[in-house]
Amino acid sequence: MEGIKAPWDVKRELLTKSEDETDPNYGCNPEERPYPDLIRFGIINLDKPPGPSSHEVTAWVKRILNIEHAGHGGTLEPNLLGRVGVEIPR
Amino acid sequence: MTGVLPVALDEATKVIQALLKAGKEYVGVMKLHGEVDEDRVREAFSEFQGKIYQKPPLRSSVKRVIRIRTIYYLNVLEIEDRNVLFQVGCEAGTYIRKLIYDIGKALGCGAHMQELRRIRAGPFTENEKMVTLHDMLYLYTRWRETSDIRMLRRFILPMEKALELLPKIYIRDSAVDAICHGAHLTVPGITHIEAGIKPNDTVAILTLKGEAVALGKALASTEEILKAAYGIVVKTERVLMPRGTYPKLWR
Fold first, then answer.
1. What's the rounded Cα separation, in Å, for the pair B251 and B242?
2. Which of B11, B124, B176 is closest, CB to CB, to A45?
3. Residue B158: which of A22, A30, A75 has the nearest Cβ?
């Protein structure tokens, strides 16, 4: 089979154009963001349960974490026993 | 369907567009509608790798015109009676239910998808900090009770994770705030750049601390950018960092 590499198998080399230093007084290493920025600039890798739609699940996340906005990446249709997956339009 | 569903919070919802275009991986069960020789099933699966034509199903959110999608790989993991356990890696916008239906048609007997689980959405996989709604509720409650921020870090990843598979360009502090105001990226602002960028590629612009500043469209290749001394090389398309995070050093 012809090999079209999946994006996650592509390795890219990082090249230097010019050196510089960053001022620790501004911004923050993403791994060390304090609360509430940790939530504000956060993303959750959720294991979607089979019943509800992606939109419903996202709404629950919003409610549990008590935040204003939440959005999901790539809809997974729900599994409804005895019925074909019903897509709920936004 | 179950599996990997990245959910972006508040400001991070802006990175979702990068995930919608990202490749996906699934495991699933195909149910054959007749007896077929195992070898024929495996052969049919291998024929649906690479570029395929696909017409979006009736119940879909896009215009129903035939489009080309790339199947990076399509493996049969196990066959038992009429059940075929498979794993697939594919381009965004591939309908797996349709793919399985089409393979069934190619086999002659017909088939449908019995079960499907997503094991990857772009950089997010089953194996890395995936949580159920229950885990999430538990950890969040623990954090409320103890103020131990590690509870939050166990399930909330920085939005930068979503950009992991995009080619990256790092910029100096002095260039950050202009980009946050929507300016395009010019050559002097760049400190590091990944190899292999081509014009029109979507790139992530990051600070030297690794924070996401913006998503943009490259106007030149990595080689051209490395050689250039001036000029706009990335068109800023989506600003991710709030203005004023870094000092304003531009006029």
1. 18
2. B124
3. A30
Compute the nearest-CA separation of B35 from chain A (Å).
24
B24·A27 Cβ contact <8 A: no
Kindly report the nearest CA distance between residue B42 and chain A, in angstroms. Answer: 13
Q: What is the DSSP letter of B147?
A: -
What pTM was computed for the model?
0.92
Q: How far apart are CA B195 and CA B222, in angstroms?
A: 6
Please write the tens of the pLDDT for every residue from A26-81. 999 999 999 999 999 999 999 999 999 999 999 999 999 999 999 998 777 775 43
User: What is the least distance, in Å, from the CA of B189 to any CA of chain A?
Assistant: 9
Instruction: Kindly list the residues from chain A whose CB atom is less than 8 angstroms away from the CB atom of residue B159.
Output: 30, 41-43
Contact A35, B186 (CB under 8 A): no
Mean pLDDT, 10 residues at a time, over chain B (251 residues)? 96 95 96 97 97 89 90 98 98 95 97 96 96 97 98 98 98 97 98 98 98 98 98 98 91 62
Is B5–A26 a contact, with Cβ atoms under 8 angstroms apart? no
- In chain B, where does DSSP find H-type helix? 16-20, 38-47, 96-107, 133-146, 149-153, 173-180, 222-227
Domains, chain B, ranges and CATH? Answer: 11-125 (3.30.2350.10), 129-158 (no CATH), 166-239 (2.30.130.10)
